[in-house]
Design brief:
about 200 residues; mainly alpha; 6 helices; globular
């Protein structure tokens, strides 16, 4: 792999992919040693496993902001980066959600809704790409990612309000998914009409 392809932003995205299983591992191992100085009064005690998972998750989330900023500022946007960056986000979010479902901190159906949306949007983008149409990330899509990350971090750390924020994230996920479907379908229809008119 050439240095141009494996640049700093792409490396950060790959790091995020490899950090995601660690989040799942730390939560799944259920390392039960309590962390009393970080536990809130009246809340379920925070364990060492939760803390380690949260630290890894937050570091991975920070790389998400860094890789995009570096790629745009230094003109390091590559085809690999366009593929691996959103993939890394999905792997991180889904890994954390699977572990939280197992720990009964988030309902499984919410995870199903979010994963289904990701499959639908990814499928639409693949069809559009085959037709030479690029469907860019929408503001709604970026906003739902922010809410998902914050909500998941709060749920990992057992902070109050995490589940309420996850509800908001799910609503934004569905809304942005509908936005992609409507705009993407329109772009595909326009591309087909242009092709017929040539």
């Amino acid at each position: 792999m050439s240095p141009k392809i494996l640049n700093v932003p792409n490396t950060l995205s790959l790091v995020r992919v490899f950090l995601a299983p660690l989040v799942l591992l730390f939560l799944s191992l259920r390392i039960s040693a309590p962390v009393p100085f970080l536990s809130l009064d009246g809340a379920e005690p925070l364990t060492l496993g939760d803390l380690l998972a949260a630290v890894v998750f937050i570091i991975a989330a920070i790389t998400d902001s860094m890789d995009g900023y570096i790629a745009r500022k230094h003109h390091l946007i590559t085809t690999l980066g366009k593929f691996i960056d959103p993939l890394a986000d999905k792997v991180l979010v889904i890994a954390a959600m699977i572990a939280l479902v197992e720990l009964q901190r988030i309902p499984g159906w919410i995870v199903l809704v979010i994963i289904t949306r990701e499959f639908v949007v990814t499928g639409l983008r693949l069809v559009a790409a085959a037709e030479g149409v690029v469907i860019a990330a929408s503001k709604g899509g970026k906003l739902k990612t922010v809410f998902q990350i914050v909500a998941l971090a709060m749920l990992i750390l057992k902070l109050p309000g995490g589940m309420a924020l996850m509800w908001v994230a799910m609503i934004l996920t569905v809304w942005s998914g509908m936005e992609y479907l409507i705009d993407g379908s329109r772009m595909l229809l326009n591309a087909e009409e242009d092709a017929r008119g040539r």
